[in-house]
């Protein structure tokens, strides 16, 4: 927040209470929302001083006498936002942790509870999609975007993936195609009349996933089926979502939002079926750059650079 | 549409077929959507030449031998958009008409099937409102707006009514209050911090009804309860609806649209319960100016003037 600079510091590890779990952190990503929390622009702000990071995986070292849900050696992830995962070890109350299988790759476990859960819920909760149906999304190379591609692929749902034009576009297209993307197009292509040709081979989407805002959303909306839904889960362009009145009245489109943090407060089921996809090789971690904790400044800087297609992940 | 001018002309009345109904029109309003159809900006355009008008009430003169749903003397209204009600008489297929009770005032019957039905459905279909709950709407002096005020009042739902500032504001406020409005405020007041005081005596709305678009919608949205719904049914400002990304993500607001024409294609129930409200004196026709058919040009011109609070209704 204004006037504050993140720093690396030594904190003492709290004494283990009877309902506490001593965790050694293994890996923790830097997500856009973590940066927004530091900038003070997020809807939830931790009391300062605070430890950054809302996601990650740790291994249980020791448990208090009344702890029943986890045992030493288990892998755990945060049950909720605000745990502060960018640290090497800590003592957490049992209820702030959820056990995850330890037979999935470390980077998958570290990045499972925010981006893939968001992707999974957005694909499941707003429209009933069947194999052969299509989904359109912008910011398709984001962590969520990559998970959408893979989860949709595993369900037989086709994806139209919108990305910004960039110098190494063919490389990005190739990477997203290798994850299972059906179409990868730029924002510019999205505006062109040739889009009609694309819809000769794929049905118009009933669901659009938006993490950009501004014109990008309006353009995606134009290709949506009547009665389709746009779900907004981010606003990278820092511009409001703009919707022509006619889309509401004559096309009956629905605009909704999704926030994983709020969803988690209600329930927490999707992670287990995601672990199934990981085990089957249908869901991998997003492209990650592993960074040792001491190089956290480099990682934070890299995480806010434009066109970053790789998630910075602190290895602890 | 471009290059076309509406004109008054004599049409021959078609021969009565066995499934037809000969109707003498009694009254037909000029609604904003009728003007849009003439301008060519509506989603449904009649084949030209066409008779204008989509709403109105007529009296059955004669019926074909196979007609069962209506008999001579009955009052009828169009079942669907596009009937062409701005005429003195016509022969219509039976299925294009719906019978309405003839014991309600003529102007109510003539204006029942578009505006009050829109108001009724929007109050019923998007949020479950209970007595004591509140609704906010802009364009509150429109035909729909006036019906919203009265139907909400009859259901114990409180209304916050937004209108544009104008020379005769106190008169408009008084008229809307007399219909049952709880609060009438201008767009300017909506933006001011004093709105907080208003919400000391009335709960924040869970439903916002929008027929304006642009900034007006964004301002209403700010006062909506979390998880509330904005329903767009018009766009008088000719500007898109703009929604901050944070409203979708952190406030979980839903944006929807409503179009009576589409709804009618699916089902048609609400008119009967509206007749009940009319009989009980809880729903009156909007402020109307009765105009003889030969003065249709004056009526059309009056209907597109700014700040027109009176619906032009052709008396046939």
From TrEMBL, chains A, B:
<dbReference type="GO" id="GO:0141148">
    <property type="term" value="F:enoyl-[acyl-carrier-protein] reductase (NADPH) activity"/>
</dbReference>
<comment type="similarity">
    <text>Belongs to the zinc-containing alcohol dehydrogenase family. Quinone oxidoreductase subfamily.</text>
</comment>
<dbReference type="Pfam" id="PF00107">
    <property type="entry name" value="ADH_zinc_N"/>
</dbReference>
<keyword id="KW-0275">Fatty acid biosynthesis</keyword>
<dbReference type="InterPro" id="IPR011032">
    <property type="entry name" value="GroES-like_sf"/>
</dbReference>
<keyword id="KW-0007">Acetylation</keyword>
<keyword id="KW-0560">Oxidoreductase</keyword>
<keyword id="KW-0276">Fatty acid metabolism</keyword>
<dbReference type="GO" id="GO:0005739">
    <property type="term" value="C:mitochondrion"/>
</dbReference>
<dbReference type="Pfam" id="PF08240">
    <property type="entry name" value="ADH_N"/>
</dbReference>
<dbReference type="InterPro" id="IPR013154">
    <property type="entry name" value="ADH-like_N"/>
</dbReference>
<protein>
    <recommendedName>
        <fullName>Enoyl-[acyl-carrier-protein] reductase, mitochondrial</fullName>
        <ecNumber>1.3.1.104</ecNumber>
    </recommendedName>
</protein>
<keyword id="KW-0521">NADP</keyword>
<dbReference type="InterPro" id="IPR051034">
    <property type="entry name" value="Mito_Enoyl-ACP_Reductase"/>
</dbReference>
<dbReference type="InterPro" id="IPR013149">
    <property type="entry name" value="ADH-like_C"/>
</dbReference>
<keyword id="KW-0809">Transit peptide</keyword>
<dbReference type="GO" id="GO:0006633">
    <property type="term" value="P:fatty acid biosynthetic process"/>
</dbReference>
<keyword id="KW-0496">Mitochondrion</keyword>
<feature type="domain" description="Enoyl reductase (ER)">
    <location>
        <begin position="1"/>
        <end position="316"/>
    </location>
</feature>
<keyword id="KW-0443">Lipid metabolism</keyword>
<dbReference type="InterPro" id="IPR036291">
    <property type="entry name" value="NAD(P)-bd_dom_sf"/>
</dbReference>
<dbReference type="InterPro" id="IPR020843">
    <property type="entry name" value="ER"/>
</dbReference>
<keyword id="KW-0444">Lipid biosynthesis</keyword>
């Amino acid at each position: 927040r204004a006037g504050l600079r993140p720093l690396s510091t030594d904190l003492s590890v709290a004494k283990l209470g009877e309902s506490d779990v001593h965790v050694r952190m293994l890996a923790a990503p830097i997500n856009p929302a973590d940066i927004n929390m530091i900038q003070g622009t997020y809807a939830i702000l931790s009391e300062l001083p605070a430890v950054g990071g809302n996601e990650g995986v740790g291994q249980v070292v020791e448990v208090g006498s009344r702890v029943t849900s986890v045992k030493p050696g288990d892998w755990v992830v945060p049950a909720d936002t605000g745990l502060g995962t960018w640290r090497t070890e800590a003592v957490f109350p049992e209820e702030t942790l959820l056990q995850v299988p330890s037979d999935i790759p470390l980077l998958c476990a570290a990045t499972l509870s925010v981006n893939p859960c968001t992707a999974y819920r957005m694909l499941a909760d707003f429209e009933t999609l069947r194999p052969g149906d299509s989904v359109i999304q912008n910011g398709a190379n984001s962590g969520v975007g990559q998970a959408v591609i893979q989860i949709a692929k595993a369900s037989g749902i086709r994806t139209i993936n919108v990305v910004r034009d960039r110098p190494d576009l063919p490389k990005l297209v190739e990477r997203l195609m290798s994850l299972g993307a059906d179409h990868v197009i730029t924002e510019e292509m999205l505006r062109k009349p040739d889009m009609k040709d694309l819809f000769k081979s794929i049905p118009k989407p009933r669901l659009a996933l938006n993490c950009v805002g501004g014109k990008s959303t309006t353009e995606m909306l134009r290709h949506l089926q009547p009665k389709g839904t746009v779900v907004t889960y981010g606003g990278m362009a820092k511009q409001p979502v703009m919707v022509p009145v006619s889309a509401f009245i004559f096309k009956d489109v629905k605009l909704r939002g999704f926030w994983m943090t709020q969803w988690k407060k209600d329930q927490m089921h999707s992670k287990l079926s995601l672990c199934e996809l990981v085990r089957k090789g249908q869901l991998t971690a997003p492209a990650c750059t592993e960074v040792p904790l001491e190089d956290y400044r480099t990682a934070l800087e890299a995480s806010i650079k434009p066109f970053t297609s790789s998630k910075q992940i602190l290895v602890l």
